[in-house]
Structure formats: C-alpha cells, structure tokens
Amino acid sequence: MMIGPFPWWIAVIIGLIIFSGYMAFRAIRSEMRLEQEFIEKEGKVYMDRIEEERKHKEETNQSGKGEDEVQSIS
C-alpha cells in the first residue's frame, strides 16, 4: 500500500519523528519550568536572609543609640 508517491511505513516514521520532537519540546519546557521554580524558591530564601540581617542591624543600631544617649546624659 502506498500513500502518495511513497510507502506507508515512511509516513509512519515521519509521524514518529514529529511525535518525538513534540515530546522532547514538552520535556524541555517542563524542565525549564521546574528550574524556574527552583530559582524563585532559592531567591526567596536569599531575600528572606537579607531581610533578617537588615532587621538585625536596625535593632543593633537602635539599641546602640539608646546606650549612647544614656551615657551622654550622665
């Protein structure tokens, strides 16, 4: 049996090649999505750590200023 000017099995192979390309595209897209989620998660951890350090520095600076004022008054 022939489909157009070529045998049927060539059409099957071409179809499988197209299907394989589609599945590879889906896998790459899924991998990119997972990688992006990981990057966002790690970025959030990093930003939380920076925020905690900023709050700690503000608390340290505020408590240091209070001690200086007490010492200068006496």
From TrEMBL:
For the keyword Transmembrane helix, the answer is yes
Disordered: region residues: 50-74
Q: Which Pfam families match?
A: Spore_YhaL
Regions of compositional bias (Basic and acidic residues) in chain numbering: 50-68
- Provide the transmembrane region boundaries: 6-25
Alphabetized, the UniProt keywords read: Membrane, Transmembrane, Transmembrane helix
Sorted alphabetically, which InterPro entries does this protein's record hold? Spore_YhaL (IPR025428)
- Under which name does UniProt file this protein? Sporulation protein YhaL
Q: Which organism is it from?
A: Salinibacillus aidingensis
Upper lineage: Bacteria, Bacillati, Bacillota, Bacilli, Bacillales
Q: Which gene encodes it?
A: yhaL
